[in-house]
Design a protein that fits this description.
Layout: E1 8-13, H1 21-28, E2 50-57, E3 63-69, H2 76-91, H3 103-111, H4 125-131, H5 134-144, E4 150-157, H6 173-189, E5 195-201, H7 203-209, E6 224-230, H8 240-260, H9 263-270, E7 285-288, H10 291-295, H11 308-318, E8 324-330, E9 336-343, H12 344-353, E10 359-360, E11 368-370, H13 378-384, E12 395-401, H14 403-406, H15 409-419, E13 424-430, H16 449-456, E14 460-464, H17 477-493, E15 500-504, H18 518-550, E16 563-566, H19 568-571, H20 592-624
Parallel strand pairs: 1-2, 5-7, 7-8, 12-13, 12-14, 14-15, 15-16
Antiparallel strand pairs: 2-3, 4-9, 4-10, 4-11, 5-6, 8-9
Helix pairs in contact: 6-8, 6-12, 15-20, 17-18
Amino acid sequence: LNNAGVPFTFASVPPCGLPNQQALQLACQDDQCGFFDTGIAEHGDEEPLLRLKLIHEEGTAKGLLGVSFHHVLFDIFGLAALLRQLHQELEKSSSADELCHDRLAAQEAFENTAPQEVPELWPLYPRALERWCFLARRLRSGLRGRPDGCATLSVTLMDGALSRLPRPEGASSLETLVAYLAQLLQRSTGRTRPRVLVTKDYRAALDAAGVGQGLSRLVANCVTHGVSFPLPAVEEHAEADHMDDWMMQAVTSMRKASDGVSLGYVRWHSEQDHQRGLPNIFASLCVNSWGQALSALDFVEAYAVGMRSIDERASKMCFPLDAAYMQVLPQPNGAQRILLTLPVTEIEAFLKELPRDIFEVPHISEMRTHAFRVPLPGSVLDRLNPAVETHHIVARVACVGDSLTACGYPKYLQALFDRAGMNVQVRGFGVCGATAQKFADQPYWEERKLEEVRVWRPHFIVTLFGTNDAKSNNWDAQSFQKDYRDLCVHFLERQEPRPELLLAVPPPAYCRGAEILSDVVNGDLPELIPKISEEARGVINRPLEEQAKRARSTVPGELLAKTSVVDTFTLLGGASLKRRSYFAEDGIHPNQRGTELLSFVIFADLRSKVRKYLRKRADESAKEVP
């Protein structure tokens, strides 16, 4: 199934063609599962809130509904309310509860809530800095080598097995399960941060703050928050009576935090400086109890959760924060399915402590491993733990042209590459007053810079000609087109390796003097430069392609000439001349502000090409390493 950009699709299967509960969950663990479709992020405001896929079993009233949504806009609690309304409308057994989509009303009710300070849930700055200092952690990782990563283990607490756990009086199934697994993790893995983070839904509190607006049925993800509570210390060889006391203390701590963290605290928390403290994040175990919302839907026979959200939390929580992540999914048949994500090195120790007479553990082949992901740019990773030495790989960029090149943009271009962390050398070969025409007042053909470009052997050449060619005593459209094309061919033919050529359209002329013809700069040159680029590329490629065609083969990519056009003309004001403040008094030469913009436009075109070249050279170097 593929939505192809459509928010709802429908399909049918023969009788008895729907998967059972176990097969459904296994299918949803597959990365290629067709039940889910996250859509295209580029849709922007037009991206639908939900994407639904209905698979109907012919001849019955049963079906399979695949739902995809973005967690920033939606959550499981809102999804449960939506499904309940759909079911009520289909069954017509009772009047359907009207859903609420008024986020502005929810925001207003939230802002009208009085803030309630809870200092013990707001860690101090030094501790926050220590936990979130990713650079120090990655430095240690680079010295030790990459860790083994994380994996997700699926275990099932069968129906009726909960009674065999040490359950405090009055404790719910979720409280008992969270406390029991938390002490198992603490005892088996030796985690030193005895805290647990659980999610809490605030729709009821929000509804009380905005009376009569139906905010308890709000379809939006703006009313959930994390609640953190401490765990008592676990003794290594504790007796059964002591474990009962421990479970009671853990459940009491969980209830105290859940009752104490009100909507007023969330309001207070939203006003705090998140650079000074990080609430509720220093937990050794993070629990997501969304499954409670789905288990309350009595018309659902089975449900399964896709693994993309688990993958995301493994990369953003389990690895960088050394936290275990647990998703509790109560099933309609009474069983409790638990997805537990933690470092691979801790799974073996945890499984040894897990009682097999209470929990059903699947085969190891069903364990889901997560790719190693680090919240740092790739350039930093390469420096910390490079696969091959690449410091000697450099991309050379030659800037050729007239005074627009000679007077400064190459140095700004070099600064942009340095800021991007790319190993690039930029050198200017501009000559004031130079022209591309051979029979003008100062042809570039006669300058020493032309030979210096060839000797330097650049990988990329940026040319910027035309302004001086547009002088009244120089301008000849046919000569300019022919000579500029020949100059480009000269660069492409006499260089080894063959460079990639970028022809920049000259910036507009903001003067109407007699020397430089503004009509030529603002009218003729933007039309001629793309033609010159195409003609120069054709002079090199056409004979090679014809020869390859006769031989019934293809031309190797490295032999073909590559040319492109950089449109600096439009971004510096274009024909409408709307950026006069970017130019000096003469109206021809950009000032510092305009020169920086000129360099940025060229950098934007060059960046991806240079990065691709450097990556290719790095791959070639890696192949050469024995």
